Amino acid sequence: MKLLRGLTFIGGLVVLLFAFGFIVRLPFATAIWPWEDGRYSYLFVGSILAAVSAAALWVGWAGEFGALPAGSLNIFVIALTTSIYFFLLASQGRKDMLLFGAFGIAAAIASLAAFFWSLNIPLKETRPMPKPVKVSFWIFIASLFAAGGALILKAPIFPWALNPDSSVIFGCIFLGDAFYFLYGIFRPNWHNALGQLLSFLVYDLVLIVPFIGLLNTVPPERYINLLVYIAVLIYSAGLAVYYLFINPQTRFGT
Q1: Spatial distance between the Cα atoms of 233 and 227, rounded to a whole number of angstroms
Q2: Within 10 Å of residue 13's Cβ, how many Cβ atoms?
Q3: pLDDT (tens digit per residue) in 173-193
């Protein structure tokens, strides 16, 4: 188990490296994206990878593999749905998408195996999930399903114009994230909320300043979308900061 903790922690560092690469648009990172994209889309991908790295680093550091099923389920949904889309694109003549589809299937199989392997590992933590966190999770789940579905249908709900293919991929990511929170609802232990809140906080920190900077340049028809997005970032960040660092019953170290 010690070796597995080390590998998980190192894996989190590798993901963090690619998160940084996407955030600052370094070629080694953006080269693995299936198509050329814009600044804010790369920033969004970086924020998602940073969130994944935060959860992996925590699991590796704490050895809390009982919390692994939620993250594995998240990755499984993302990998499966995106691979279906990549194969659909390949069937339409874009043969370069076959490799991405194959990688998605491999990731789906690996994450599903990790899900079942870790499903019966008991959590070290016995504290229940606080009720305000549980209520917030339901709100996040509903929002993620709604936004994910809209993005897959290529509705213009983001505060910037998306590549249509990126819209579908981002929608799949939101659907996977919905299952990440949903798992915590059905197993409402504090450590099935800690990883989610930590991930959300890192995601918020990556996006909130650039998004506030967009307020002066966003097209009028996307202004409300941006305000709603910023409001979600502020609320989720506040929730995470309170329960991770302030609340005496749940903060780190208690």
Answers
A1: 10
A2: 12
A3: 999 999 999 999 999 999 999
How buried is 28 (Cβ within 10 angstroms: 0-12 exposed, 13-18 middle, 19+ buried)?
exposed
Residue 189: strand pairing partners: 128
Closest by alpha carbon to 230, among 212, 206, 205? 212
Q: Where are the domains of the chain?
A: 2-246
Q: Which residue matches tokens 């874009």? A: 94
Closest CA to 100 of 166, 6, 160: 166
User: Tens digit of pLDDT for each residue in 18-40?
Assistant: 999 999 999 999 999 999 999 99
Cβ-Cβ contacts under 8 Å for 95 (sequence gap 6 or more): none
Give, rounded to a whole angstrom, the gap between the first and last alpha carbons of the chain. 24
Mean pLDDT of 66-94: 96
Q: What global pTM score does this model have?
A: 0.95
- Contact indicator for 67, 199 with CB cutoff of 8 Å: no
Q: Are 53 and 8 in contact (CB under 8 A)?
A: no
pLDDT band at 125; cut points 50, 70, 90: confident
| Amino acid identity at 171 | G
Number of helices (H), then strands (E), belonging to the chain: the values are 9, 0
> How crowded is residue 220: how many other Cβ atoms within 10 Å of its Cβ?
6
pLDDT exceeds cutoff 90 at 197: yes
